[in-house]
Structures are given as C-alpha cells and as structure tokens.
Amino acid sequence: MNCELFIEQIYELKEEEGGDSMRMSNLYMPTLREVPAEAEIPSHKLLLRAGMIRKLVSGIYSYLPLGYRVIRKIENIVREEMDNAGAQELLMSAIQPKELWEATGRWHDFGPEMFKLKDRHDREFCLGPTHEEYFTSLVKGEVKSYKQLPLNLYQIQTKYRDEKRPRFGLMRSREFIMKDAYSFDADEEGMRKSYEIMWKAYEKIFDRLKLKYKVVLGDSGAMGGNVSHEFMALSEVGEGVIAYCEHCDYAATLEKASVIYKVENDVEELPLEKVHTPGVTTIEELERFFGINASNFAKAVVYKAAGYPVIAVIPGDRELNETKLCNYLKIAEHELEMANEDLIKEITGANKGFTGPVNLKGEVRLLIDSRITKMKNLVTGANETDYHLKNVNYGRDFTGEVVDDLLLVREGDICPKCGETLKMERGIEVGNIFQLGTKYSKPLNATFLDENGIEKPFVMGCYGIGISRTMMAVVEQYHDDDGIIWPLIVAPYHVIVTVINSKNSEQMELGERIYSELMAHGVEVLLDDRNESAGVKFKDRDLIGIPIRITVGKKAGESIVEYSLRKDKEKKEVHVNEIIRLVEEEFEKAGLKF
Ligand code: ATP
Ligand code: MG
Questions:
Q1: Which atom of ligand 1 has the smallest separation from the CA of 434?
Q2: How much distance in Å is there from the Cα of 9 to the middle of ligand 1?
Q3: Residue 482 burial (CB count, 10 A)
Q4: How far away, in angstroms, is 193 Cα from ligand 1 center?
Q5: Euclidean distance between CA atoms 115 and 514, whole angstroms
C-alpha cells in the first residue's frame, strides 16, 4: 500500500474514534470459548475468556485493552475521591533500598514474601510490597513544622509480593496495582480524624463501584499499629472470612474476631489417671474411646516459632488462631511452622498425637488459652506414646503462660459487643486502613516541631486499595453463566452496537450512524462491525459484558433496532431516534454525567 495513503487512513481512524470508542474489527480482544484450566473462580475464568487479562507466569498478569480500560476507570474513581478528601497524588519508585527496610526491622519481618534483588555493585534492593518506610523517609526533614500538618500523600502504583499461594488471577497475584496513601499528623487525635476521612472516602469509592461490602475490624499484621479496618466485598469465593453480628454493628475478620465464652467450673477436681490408649490420636478417636465430647479435651498443638518450640493448649473442640498466636509471640507469620515429628518427640518424649501440658521433657514455651484454666477434669495426651491422662486440672497438674484468647472464632459464638450470636460470611479484602501511630516515624526518626518547639515523631495512618483485586471483586458480584455484567460506571465501553450482517450496507450505515451519534454525546461505544456470525457476536457481547446493547438487523431500512441491557437482556424494538434518550436514562440511573 502507498505509505502516505496508509498514514492518512490511520489518521482518519484516530480522529474518528477519538480513543474512547472503537470498531471491533480493530479491537485486540482475544476471547476464548473454552474455560482455561488454570482458572477456578468465575471472575478469573471470565476475565481470561473475555480477553481482558493474560497470564505470563504464576501470579503475574497483563491487562489487555478492555481490561485495562476497567482498571483505569477504577483508578480514576479512587483518584477523584482521594483528591476530594484532600490527599495529594505522587508517584514513587517500585525499587527500594534494603537500608530503609532494615531501619524498621521489616527486611526480616516481610520474609520470603519480599522480592529481593541486587544491583551491579551488590547493593541490595526490594521490589516494594508496600511503601510505609519510603513515604516516611520522603517527608522526613522536608516537613518540619506542625503548621504543615496534616498531610496525606498517595500513589497508584505496582506492588510486588512473592505470595506463598498466588491464585485466582488478580485476586492474589505477585504483581498487582495498589493505591496506597499515608497520612501524617501532629497527634493521635489528628490521626484519628485523618483515618475517619479516609474511611468515608473508601465508602464513597466502593459505593460508586456498586460493590456490596462490609467494613470489618482487621488484624494489623505486618503493617503494625493498633486499629485497622478492612473493606470486604462480599463473595462466596473470597479468601477472607468475616464474623459479624446482626444485632449490633460488630464485624471482624477471622484473624481478628475475639472469642468469648463462659466455662462452667463448679465441679470437683478428680484424681489424675493415666489411661492406655493405643493408637488413639485424633479428637474423633478420643471422643469414641472415652465416650465424652471433644470440649472435655485439652488439645496441645506444637509449633516451631522463630526457631523455638512452643506448645499452645486450647479446648479440644476449638481451632487455634495462628494470627493471635503470632501477635502474642510478637513474631511474623512466616516465622511460625508446625513442629515435625522429631521435634515433637524431643520435647514430649512421645509420638505425635499424645502431646499434653503435663510432664513435658524438653525446653518449650507452654501457652495456655485462658479457657483451659477454668475447665475441670480434662483429657490430654500423657507425653508418652499410647497413653492419655484423665482428670487433668490447671494449677494442680500444670501451669504455663496464660493467654487471654488464642481461639479461632466460629459461627454461633457470642458477639463480644452485644452478647447475641455471631454469623459468618466470606469476603474479598479490597481495601484496608490502618492507624499506625509512630511505628514508622520513630525508628526512621521522622520528626517535626510542635507549637512549643518540641521535636515529635509524626503520627501516621496508611490506607490501601487493591485496584486490580477490586476489578475481580466487581466481576465476582456482577456476572452470570454467559459472562460479565459490568456496572455502567466501570464498563470498558458503555454501549455496544452489534451489526448483525456487516456486509449489508443498510445495516452497516445505520450502525455507523448510531455509533457516531452516541460518540458525539460522549458515550463510549463499541461497534461490532466484524465479519462474524450473529451467534459469535452475541456470545462475545454477553461475555465482555457491555451494559447497553443495540442490535442493528433486518429492520435497519425502517430505522428500527433492538435495544437491551446486559443485566436483564429483555429486548425491545425502538426507533433510532429514541436511542439517545434511552442511553441518557441509563446514565442518569447510574449517576453518570451525560
Ligand atoms: P491479604 O490479606 O489478602 O494478603 P494484605 O492484608 O496483605 O492482603 P494489604 O497489605 O492490606 O494486603 O494491602 C492493601 C490492599 O492491597 C489489600 O486490601 C488488597 O486489596 C490488595 N492486595 C494485597 N495483596 C494482594 C495480592 N497479592 N494481589 C492482589 N491484591 C492484593
Ligand atoms: Mg490487608
């Protein structure tokens, strides 16, 4: 082809499409008919099938044109609400030097989740999993006076975490897009105010994204600080579990939720007895053997915590909460591992399955859930292979470090706030806000002068939103068997105009006319002008989930088209002159400017 002519054509195309509308014959949208084997959950399957994302290696993905449009829309909503809340956007490097992380001890604490690398001079760096240290060091020395506070800075940037189990596509990936914000205040009260403002901004963001979500108390984990809340998009496939009360506003993550219950303890202590229990090791076998309920056992779980053996003793019918255990031991979660048979033998003198708190042989920290101290006449392992003890009582037969609560919450537990019963549901953690206090400013020596000229560390908060995970959460809440059903506000395009027979000039002309008119109104339109069968076009449009659909077919000559919405698929025939009004109505309903 003549080169000048070709360039001219491209120019024409660009001008006409203005970037915000597209002919599908030009669109890079590699849809798949088959469900990819790697995908387990609907959002992952659908985003792959719709040609919106592609995997490079485990946990590392690309965003293709349609998917990236959604990402940008989510980012812009986040941006608008962050800006409205007074935060200022900047952009930092993903690469951070080791020294910064050593100052707070997190080079070690983050453990194997951190991607580490070296430069040509053997200097060590990481690919930032988060940016607390970096932001703190950025304002250090620059913000000198209380008069410059409060300050809230944020970025939308790529984060790296070498997750133990990357899965579900963008849900738990090793490279992902996060909005992270950091607030700097002069005192605790200021920090709480900043926290409140971010909380409100997050509500606006997730409301605008049409997500059904709960705000729940979270565990502060690796970020530190005391108070944190997680924004959980409700979904059966969510990796997060929420314990909540329907009678009051209590809601907490599985890791955080307090377990409270009363123990009846007005029975007499009976004499300790050793019982021969050959091969009886599981709770079920013990229940059968002793003919009593698991709640009368004390379960002793052996761990290696930061290299040292620890035994946690809890009621036999309950599960241990490892986050609570790590918080008590002040260790990172990656430092906790189940003990192997050798270690169990070394400290108990017995095989696995016969561990108990009485007569331990080796050096070990014995942690006891407070409930155990009130329970009477328990059955426990005897620390001797094939033997258990009966009528074991705390104080008389053993002692140890009593920990208030080491238990994992479960459905039906008592609400710690109002005393009613707790329910459980699953959610996807899309956002997380933390009151950090001086956890980063103190070790990094980031200070300002207060109104009396006294040097003080900044009181900080940090606030994250998983942009790419949020896209998955939206798809989880908005899809059916045929594909995605994007809410208008994040849809890659607002309208799809399907021309049934693109070789028919009458149909094509009408399709083009509608396409141009909608574009002129600022509507983002896809024109399906491909030389494909109607069946393929319909399948694709269901799959990619464009909210408003116009089908141009046999009645094109009479200026009649079919109009439908992806969410209900109810079709109606309308005259082309009605289209603008109908689309405008949808925009109004969605709270979008037309
Ligand atoms: P999770 O508990 O799911 O591992 P987190 O609590 O470690 O997440 P934060 O440090 O709070 O994550 O990060 C802020 C936000 O970034 C999270 O609320 C989540 O939306 C997102 N996020 C975190 N890890 C990932 C990941 N591996 N893939 C995608 N998004 C992530
Ligand atoms: Mg979190």
A1: 11
A2: 45
A3: 15
A4: 24
A5: 50
Blockwise average pLDDT, block size 10, the chain, 594 residues: 48 52 95 90 97 97 98 98 98 98 94 96 98 97 97 98 96 98 98 98 98 95 78 97 97 96 86 96 92 94 96 97 96 94 95 96 95 96 97 96 97 96 98 96 97 97 98 98 97 98 97 96 97 97 98 97 94 97 97 91
Q: Is the dihedral of CA 4, 10, 12, 14 positive or negative?
A: negative
Q: Are the CB atoms for 381 and 353 separated by under 8 Å? A: yes
Q: Where are the alpha helices (DSSP H) in 321-389?
A: 322-329, 341-348, 370-374
Give me the helices (H) in 31-112, please: 42-49, 65-84, 98-102, 106-109
Cβ of 256 less than 6 Å from ligand 1: no
For residue 367, the cross-strand partners are 312, 401
- Tokens 């693109």 label which residue? 502
Q: How many angstroms separate the Cα of 140 from the Cα of each of 135, 459, 575?
A: 9, 13, 64
124-127 and 151-160 strand pairing: unpaired
Alpha carbon distance 62, 341 (integer Å): 43
Centre of ligand 1 to C-alpha 87, Å, is: 21
SS3 173: coil
The 3-state DSSP class for residue 507 equals helix
Question: Which residue has tokens 């696995």?
Answer: 352
Nearest in space to 325 (alpha carbons), one of 346, 308, 350: 308
